[in-house]
Amino acid sequence: MAADPVAVQPLPDRVRHRFPILERLVYVNSCSQGALSDAVRDAYEQYLADWDEHGAPWEYWVERTEAARTAFAHLVNADPDEIAVTTSLSAGVSALATGLRYARRSKIVVTDLEFPTIGQIWHAQAARGARVEHVAPADDGTVPLEHFERAIDEDTALVSITHVSYRTGAMTDVEGVVELARERGALVLLDAYQTAGSLPVDVKALGVDFLASGVLKYLLGSAGLAFFYCRRELFERAWPTATGWFADQDIFEMDVHDYSPSPTARRFQSGTPPIPAIYAGIAGIELMEEIGIAETREHVLELNERLIAGVEELGGTVVTPRERKRHGALICIRSTDVDKLVSELGRDGIVTSSRDGNVRVSAHSYNSTDDIDAVLAALARQRALLA
Ligand SMILES: Cc1ncc(COP(=O)(O)O)c(C=O)c1O
Predict the structure, then answer these.
(1) Tens-digit pLDDT profile for residues 222-233
(2) H/E segment holding residue 123
(3) Helical H runs in 33-111?
(4) What is the pLDDT of residue 5?
(5) Whose CA is nearest to atom 7 of ligand 1?
(6) Cβ of 249 below 6 Å from ligand 1
(7) What three-state secondary structure class fits 14?
């Protein structure tokens, strides 16, 4: 029997037609935002059509919010009641930070590889008695376990780590940190914004207590929708003071005289859910599940190997660790003038971004070896801007 021609097609050939921008540009900036798909565009149109047709179909919109909760739960191997549907990663983490008490254990351990919002949220808790200790990376761009070992102690309430750093592309040894934290009685929060959708994320396998992420990047959704996971045993540990009526134990009671947070992770929510972004987010997640997250991970690792080898051949410096299990989708390349390099690549129709003097190249399921070769050819033309 002849082989199924669809099954043997390379992944990008199967999915590229869903993303119109790829007809015009080499889009390797999914670490900032995923490419717009036909499914997500249709979802926004559906939102407007439903609004137009039904007026205020809140019953359906609440049901869509629950569908988003279920989709997030499925994505990270949690139960739906362990998930809060939030409007940003920051909103979920802030709800947690305002809900913890810092009297018995006051220290929060934060790495210097975190997204700024994480440091800012924890430092804001200094007013409530929290003490933030920063853990610096080593020269290779990763934070070795020894650095955590020195920082996590009997006074540590929580360790706040990023799965993959937005700055360097380095992947944290999450299981190693969780083990250290457990030994010393500390909780662990994982920022999975740079991994959710780009590789399988399993809260049970990782052993984390809390996880926050959003749909803007590898989950192919858009701004305004994020989620927060809380391990069931910890629901009652936090009493969020950044809150709102959708966090209440009974949303429909409309009780203005009392604050009784939901007994589930919904206590980390706030006000009206972001309905338009929920339509888009569900479409993005469903598309990503159809494409296949595990297959995307394998595909992007291959592309990254090609990219790293090519950059090194050009005499450039890759800041991201080379080892497969030490990086995510994002590869960071050092430049002598990163703004110029990003703009020169842009002139060649290549969309990238930058942080810390590094150009960031982040591939997805829809990127092909041709895309990587186009990036390498453009970098060769700009070799003088490589450090
Ligand atoms: C690792 C990481 N964490 C957090 C954020 C920001 O999340 P939010 O704006 O939803 O709070 C980003 C976004 O760029 C990110 O890359």
Answers:
(1) 999 999 999 999
(2) helix 116-124
(3) 38-54, 58-76, 89-99
(4) 54
(5) 89
(6) no
(7) helix
User: Residue 379: phi, psi to the nearest 5?
Assistant: -65, -35
**32 CA closest ligand 1 atom index:** 14
DSSP 159: E
The alpha carbon of 118 and the centre of ligand 1 are apart by a number of angstroms equal to: 9
Best residue among 32, 89, 355 to mutate for probing ligand 1, ranked by most atoms within 8 Å of CB: 89
Q: Which of 166, 227, 332 to mutate to test the pocket of ligand 1 (most atoms within 8 A of CB)?
A: 166
| Cα gap 93→81, rounded to integer Å | 17
Give the residue among 130, 136, 141 at the shortest CA–CA distance from 111: 136
Cα(72)–Cα(265) distance, integer angstroms = 13
> How far is the C-alpha of 20 from the C-alpha of 145, rounded, in Å?
43
Cα–Cα distance for residue pair 374/379, rounded to 1 Å: 9
Q: What does the pLDDT read at residue 8?
A: 76
Q: Helix (H, G, I), strand (E, B), or coil: what is residue 336?
A: coil
Residue with tokens 């803007």: 216
d(CA 195, CA 92): 17
- Is residue 289 a contact partner of residue 220, using CB atoms and an 8 Å limit? no
pLDDT in the model for residue 1: 45
DSSP secondary structure code for residue 301 in this structure: H
Rg (CA), the chain: 21
CB of 88 closer than 6 angstroms to any ligand 1 atom: yes
Spans of the chain below 50 pLDDT: 1
Instruction: From the CA of 163, give the closest atom in ligand 1.
Output: 1
Do residues 179 and 357 lie in contact, with contact meaning Cβ atoms separated by under 8 Å? no
pTM of structure: 0.97
CA angle 304, 306, 311 (to 5 degrees): 95
User: Measured between alpha carbons, how far apart are the two ends of the chain, in Å?
Assistant: 53
Residue 172 beta carbon below 6 angstroms from any ligand 1 atom: no
169 touches ligand 1 (CB under 6 Å)? no
Nearest to 211 by CA among 301, 12, 77: 77
* SS3 assignment, position 302: helix
